[in-house]
Specification:
18% strand, alpha+beta, 178 residues
Length: 178
């Protein structure tokens, strides 16, 4: 699967590493940021707390896969305050992950995706009153699963910071080797 994913994003990918899923560390501290609503998305959508399972159930979900491919994409910004550039880069990063996932679905492959930022598929999320309209493509953020992206990058020698006037977004695909 690593080759398929890297081929689909070869013009964008900055770095990637395939690891054993068991090597990913879940941090209660990161989940506490969610509960403190540091990003403003807590209790607003189906891919963020409290709508997602407990930390132990989350770990169980992705530990059913033996392998994880972590990749990052670097994006240039006009300056350090280029909010529109950051949001555009986030959207592009997530569109890239969605494109990969859509292709993998056509191959009938079993996988799970965690991406940067909370779900932004719908203009207004149905949470909590009605079920998610797009559960097959609403991928949760890495942080909602308790993953400390900065520590993960450091552990596997991936660049988290890539210089002035850039932003880097991460995605993880979990899968089993066929």
């Amino acid at each position: 699967m690593k080759n398929i994913i890297e081929k689909l994003i070869e013009n964008k990918i900055f770095q990637s590493v395939e690891i054993e899923t068991k090597d990913i560390i879940i941090s209660e501290e990161i989940l506490s940021y969610c509960k403190a609503n540091k990003c403003g998305k807590y209790n607003t959508n189906w891919t963020c707390p409290p709508a997602i399972p407990s930390i132990y159930q989350l770990k169980e979900q992705y530990n059913r896969y033996s392998t994880a491919l972590i990749y990052n994409i670097i994006y240039p910004l006009e300056d350090s305050f280029d909010w529109d550039g950051m949001l555009g880069a986030l959207k592009d990063s997530n569109n890239t992950a969605n494109k990969i996932a859509k292709y993998l679905h056509t191959l009938k492959l079993d996988f799970k995706v965690l991406k940067s930022g909370s779900c932004d598929i719908c203009d207004k999320c149905t949470y909590p009153d009605n079920p998610c309209k797009h559960p097959d493509i609403a991928y949760p953020p890495l942080e909602a699963y308790g993953i400390n992206v900065m520590e993960l990058a450091k552990k596997f020698n991936l660049n988290y910071y890539n210089g002035v006037n850039t932003i880097t977004y991460f995605t993880i695909f979990f899968y089993n080797h066929e």
